[in-house]
Q: What sequence folds into this?
């Protein structure tokens, strides 16, 4: 007949195996999502467009996969520290039990971040797909380019300036200081 201690050890072992299986499943599923998105996403210059948001969701899923991997790695270190603590003297046990406590906190952190990033990646992907669908049907107006916002005539500015200004929102201060010069005569900077 098994004692309470043996049954408790068996329950802890079963729980650890179940947690590891779930962690491996989540890591595998997240890596599959990353592979799917990397293969099917269309890529374009960064801006306020569908491709940028799909890239952001891919980044969230990749970071989620990193956290899932680190959680598994820390779980292995916990098992190693527990084994060392069981086979050592009192001083060694104290040291390794402190490691186990530290690793357990790290495991919980990685668990929390993994789940948050997985949810954020899913929300980002779904919102992007819905937003892109409505933008294609005309419900959401496309964003004007900064050149149109400032009233610049890109035909007079010369070749290449239209590509520079189209959908590029990072250069508003540069555009404002050069707007008058562009309408008069293009110059290289």
A:
């Amino acid at each position: 007949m098994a004692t309470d201690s043996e049954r408790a050890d068996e329950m802890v072992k079963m729980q650890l195996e179940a947690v590891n299986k779930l962690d491996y499943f989540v890591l595998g599923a997240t890596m599959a999502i990353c592979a799917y998105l990397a293969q099917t996403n269309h890529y374009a210059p960064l801006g306020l467009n569908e491709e940028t948001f799909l890239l952001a969701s891919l980044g969230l899923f990749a970071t989620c996969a990193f956290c899932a991997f680190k959680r598994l790695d820390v779980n292995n270190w916990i098992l190693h520290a527990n084994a060392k603590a069981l086979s050592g003297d009192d001083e060694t046990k104290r040291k390794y039990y402190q490691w186990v406590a530290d690793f357990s906190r790290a495991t919980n952190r990685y668990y929390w971040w993994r789940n948050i990033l997985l949810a954020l990646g899913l929300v980002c992907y779904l919102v992007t797909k819905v937003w892109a669908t409505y933008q294609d049907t005309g419900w959401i107006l496309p964003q004007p380019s900064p050149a149109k916002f400032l009233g610049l005539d890109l035909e007079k500015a010369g070749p290449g300036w239209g590509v520079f200004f189209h959908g590029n929102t990072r250069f508003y201060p540069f555009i404002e200081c050069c707007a008058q010069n562009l309408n008069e005569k293009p110059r290289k900077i």
